[in-house]
């Protein structure tokens, strides 16, 4: 590989150590690399416990954005910090051989306090807090944040009895104190001790290189643990532990869900033969849920809070879990799509220039016809995801732009011929056909789908709304005239929002996850 592989990492000592391990292994394979350190929200906001920040993937979001912007080729993470659902376009490329999975208690003076009624233990982890209080209910837990070195320093300068760390973290950078013991009874975080590499899904060359670093046994075990976490709908805001290991061709899995105060605890253990293990995570999650886990999770989610953020597009559960703790979200599709039947006369012969500006148009075309029937010489589209869908279902895209106006300007300059066929909605923006017509390019518009407004009146508690297209703005404002903060997926959507709202903000990249990032920045 001739290019330099840009390795994204947080800039803490531990994160850099992990990134350098990946760098060393890649260079051993003969590849050139470059480290690109960045700061994350988890590194910057140190005055609150992680579970109070309420953001799944707090340490990974900045690197996700950098990757989607092509500032880095791969990112190196502690796998336990990575959300169970990655942003669209980003995939797990490799998991390195796992290190020590245990939690470690670093104590001061001696261990006699373990038999005492009163003791003070420091941790920023809700899982560690809950398990410690379950075992030592009279002890006091105090918050501890920061990188490994600063946490050890805070312990040294405090009157605490001890603090809990990941054994892998303090071991990897060689600062494990002598006064430390592994907590064999504490079930670790899912994927604790594992280093994971992510890459762009469509970067096949980089993914193939990273695959050479993958450790299959670690991948199997951490996948089970993370699937268990996902099935329980947990993250940084739920006390969930999970550990799988392979021995003698068998996989043993242990999981736990607790209440934050440690008074309630549900455990599960399952052993299966290697190769017959695919149902372990589902079975164990169902076991926990059926024994009170659902009620416990519902109570943790704090259902009494009023909705303050409304999404004009239905969000997945994993997307909802990305929100900051201060966000209580609600989502519905305020725009409904109805695919049209496209008459065969439009496709009797090869079309020289085709314009597609949404995934809905792609779905309409491929619902009506097979790829072989769609004879298009040049396909021009708007958006990376639309391009990916076109190339998966129809054929190669000649050129793509981020918005319709930019695409129109490109077509005026570079399109072959003076005629184009535009597969669009019954409601579409005027910019593209207007620009083309003004430059003597004939536009044949074919209505591929219909956009129907289906907005609802939101509660008075809603103070911010997430918009994903001009039509979502139009639909929302038909039923609502209140002043809100408008969080928009892109500039075209923001332009429409500015007609109705004073405070309009635009995401860094055109993804749902990036809009959520924008919302979280407001509520931190």
Automatic annotation (TrEMBL):
Which keywords annotate this record? Answer: Porphyrin biosynthesis, Transferase
Oligomeric and partner information: Monomer.
* One GO CC term on file: cytoplasm
Residue ranges constituting the Porphobilinogen deaminase C-terminal domain according to the UniProt record: 220-285
Q: What is this protein called?
A: Hydroxymethylbilane synthase
Please tell me whether the keyword Mitochondrion is annotated for this protein.
no
Q: Which residues form a coiled coil?
A: none
Q: What is its EC number?
A: 2.5.1.61
Give cofactor(s), names only. Answer: dipyrromethane
């Amino acid at each position: 590989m001739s290019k330099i592989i840009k390795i994204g990492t947080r800039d803490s000592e531990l994160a850099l150590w992990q990134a350098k391990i990946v760098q060393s292994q890649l260079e051993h394979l003969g590849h050139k690399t470059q480290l690109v350190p960045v700061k994350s929200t988890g590194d910057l906001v140190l005055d609150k416990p992680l579970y109070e920040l309420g953001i799944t993937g707090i340490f990974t979001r900045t690197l996700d954005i950098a990757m989607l912007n092509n500032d880095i080729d791969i990112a190196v993470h502690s796998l336990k910090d990575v959300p169970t659902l990655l942003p669209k376009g980003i995939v797990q490329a490799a998991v390195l051989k796992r290190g020590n999975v245990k939690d470690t208690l670093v104590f001061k003076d001696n261990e006699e306090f373990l038999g005492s009624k009163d003791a003070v233990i420091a941790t920023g982890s809700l899982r560690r807090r809950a398990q410690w209080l379950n075992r030592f209910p009279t002890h006091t837990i105090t918050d501890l944040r920061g990188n490994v070195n600063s946490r050890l320093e805070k312990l040294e300068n405090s009157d605490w009895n001890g603090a809990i760390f990941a054994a892998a973290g303090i071991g990897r950078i060689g600062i494990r104190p002598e006064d430390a013991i592994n907590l064999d009874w504490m079930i670790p975080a899912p994927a604790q001790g594992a280093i994971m590499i992510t890459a762009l899904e469509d970067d096949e060359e980089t993914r193939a290189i990273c695959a050479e670093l993958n450790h299959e046994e670690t991948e199997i075990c951490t996948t089970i643990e993370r699937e268990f976490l996902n099935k329980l709908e947990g993250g940084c805001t739920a006390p969930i532990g999970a550990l799988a290991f392979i021995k003698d061709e068998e996989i043993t899995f242990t999981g736990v869900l607790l209440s934050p105060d440690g008074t309630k605890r549900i455990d599960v253990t399952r052993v299966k033969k290697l190769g017959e293990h695919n149902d372990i995570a589902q079975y164990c999650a169902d076991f926990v849920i059926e024994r009170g886990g659902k009620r416990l999770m519902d109570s943790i989610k704090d259902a009494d809070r009023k909705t303050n953020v409304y999404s004009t597009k239905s969000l997945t559960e994993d997307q909802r879990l990305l929100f900051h703790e201060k966000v209580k979200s609600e989502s519905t599709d305020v725009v409904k799509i109805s695919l049209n039947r496209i008459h065969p006369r439009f496709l009797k012969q090869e079309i020289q220039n085709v314009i597609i500006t949404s995934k809905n148009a792609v779905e309409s075309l491929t619902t009506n016809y097979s790829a072989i029937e769609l004879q298009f010489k040049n396909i021009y589209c708007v958006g990376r995801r639309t391009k990916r869908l076109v190339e998966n279902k129809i054929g190669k895209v000649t050129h793509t732009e981020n918005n319709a106006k930019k695409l129109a300007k490109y077509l005026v300059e570079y399109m072959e011929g003076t005629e184009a066929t535009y597969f669009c909605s019954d409601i579409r923006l005027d910019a593209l056909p207007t620009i083309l017509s003004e430059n003597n390019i004939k536009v044949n518009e074919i209505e591929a789908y219909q956009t129907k407004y289906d907005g609802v009146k939101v509660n008075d508690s809603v103070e911010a709304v997430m918009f994903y297209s001009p039509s979502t703005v139009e639909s929302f404002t038909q039923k609502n005239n209140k002043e809100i903060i408008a969080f928009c997926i892109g500039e075209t959507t923001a332009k429409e929002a500015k007609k109705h709202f004073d405070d309009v903000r635009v995401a860094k990249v055109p993804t749902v996850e990036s809009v959520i990032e924008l919302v979280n920045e407001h509520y931190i």
